[in-house]
Amino acid sequence: MKGVIMSTDAEMEQYGPAAIYLRKPEKERIEAQNTPFDAKTAYFVADPDEMYLKGKLIKKEGGKATVETDSGKTVTVKEDDIHPRNPPKFDKIEDMAMMTHLNEPCVLYNLKERFASWMIYTYSGLFCVVVNPYKWLPVYDAQVVGAYRGKKRIEAPPHIFSISDNAYQFMLTGEALAFALVFFTLFL
Questions:
Q1: Listed residue (168, 166, 180, 162) closest to 15, CA to CA
Q2: Considering the chain, what percentage of its residues have pLDDT values greater than 70?
Q3: C-alpha distances in angstroms, 81 versus 33, 44, 100, 108?
């Protein structure tokens, strides 16, 4: 991916047990890059139960779109209710600003897939998005702090430690004013 330095599995060992919670393994990245994909037919379609489903566009006609979902169901919806998908190489991407298609279903799908693998940190441009796992993950110990120390944001997987260390480094060098904007959202 342009602009991001992807670590090999061996380089990720510096993060210790936290590595699997920070970046998808090399094998998974390679498989995703080699997965066949047809950008002309790969879409998300609105669904009342799941919000969005992956599907293959069959036809567009008269403001309507017919899509066959991955489960084999054929649905016809308004053309506005389908959204282009990203190639599989963007699945579980660390910075959503790098996506080809930055639409609601693509963002939700990426966050869902990362969360399903307990990768709770994701960048969206300058922001770090965190999905609360409601359980303890081994991503906050001294080894992880040390692994992020002194690294540029593009040199390490998404993490609050990267944001804080970068802000600290900017303050030390006086290069720029550094601000960390934190939002807390509680869903009941």
A1: 162
A2: 89
A3: 27, 8, 19, 15
Query: Tokens 């960390």 map to which residue?
Result: 180
pTM of the model: 0.86
The full set of domain ranges for the chain reads 9-35+88-173, 42-84
> Across-strand partners of 123?
95, 128
Q: What is the pLDDT of residue 91?
A: 96
Asked if 9-35+88-173 and 42-84 have one fold, the answer is no
Judged against a pLDDT cut of 50, whether residue 188 lies above it is answered with no
Cα–Cα distances in Å, from 102 out to 108, 109, 113, 179? Answer: 10, 11, 15, 25
CATH 1.10.3380.10 for domain 42-84: no
pLDDT in tens, 48-90: 999 999 999 999 999 999 999 999 999 999 999 999 999 999 9
